[in-house]
Amino acid sequence: MIKISKHILLMLLFYTFDIFACSNLNLPIVNSYNSIEFYNGKGIETLLITSTKQPHYCVLILSECGIPLSKGEIYFDKSTELLKKALSHAYLNPAQKWWSIELYQKNDLNHSYANLNITPKAECYNGGLIFEIIEYREPYYFISIKLKDKSIHQFGFIKSKSLLNEKDFDFILLDEIYTKNNDKYELLSCHETNFDCNLARYSHPYQFFESVQYSELFR
User: Which residues contact 163 (CB under 8 A, 6 or more apart)?
Assistant: First the structure.
């Protein structure tokens, strides 16, 4: 009988999860009636219209792996069908912090005729992101952001003089965490906090928690 070490099995599991991570997250988006796909030169980004209350539409932009990149409100004073038609010849511009949408005519892709700025709006769907407080050492929080499928999107630390409520979380953008009451927190590294950075749990949280998670499968 061939014996496979625990280390090799762990590596195989990591590899398998990496292969299927993107496709699993994308499945509900691909079949959505109000989604439009955009090729960015390297991969596919998806814009999802999450609220059709014109003229203030809510949109969500996701990466090829289904990771929320931006979300908010756009102003478009026409029907949803006309918005979708306009988006069929558009460019998602990440140059602005919350992104913007440049609209083009089908027969003229060199000059945009309109620019729809995405403005932050707490009421707009955030793609299922989950904010979790792992540990608190006043005034710092060790936190994680999870994707809709409960996989880890990001670890980090934030500083807050007031007590945080996980339910107040709205979105994470460019290493900044936004809450529904318009507060903003910058993600910090371990060395900027009072946590013990000699511990792998804090200095290398991705490797630490993945190792613990998969090791439990062999107990």
Answer: none
- CB count, 10 Å around CB of 142? 21
**CA–CA distance, 137 with 158 (Å, rounded to integer):** 11
Q: Which residue has the tokens 């932009």?
A: 61
> Could you give the CA distance from residue 52 to residue 98 in angstroms, rounded to a whole number?
19
CA pseudo-torsion sign 58, 76, 117, 110: positive
Q: Are 91 and 102 in contact (CB under 8 A)?
A: yes
Q: How many CB atoms lie within 10 A of CB 166?
A: 10
pLDDT in tens, 54-105: 999 999 999 998 999 999 999 999 999 999 999 999 999 999 999 999 999 9
Helix, strand or coil, per DSSP, at residue 198: coil
Instruction: Give the Cα separation of 40 and 217 in Å (integer).
Output: 38
Stretches in the chain below the pLDDT threshold 70 = 1-33, 212-219
Q: Residue 99 burial by CB count (10 A; 0-12/13-18/19+): exposed, middle or buried?
A: buried
| Residues paired with residue 39 on neighbouring β-strands, in sequence order | 44
Task: Determine the longest span between alpha carbons in the chain, in angstroms.
Answer: 69
> b vs e for 184-205, b when ≥16 Cβ sit within 10 Å of the residue's Cβ?
ebebbebeebebeeeeebbeeb
The pLDDT assigned to 213 comes to 60
pTM metric for this prediction: 0.82
Which element (helix H / strand E) includes 81? helix 80-87
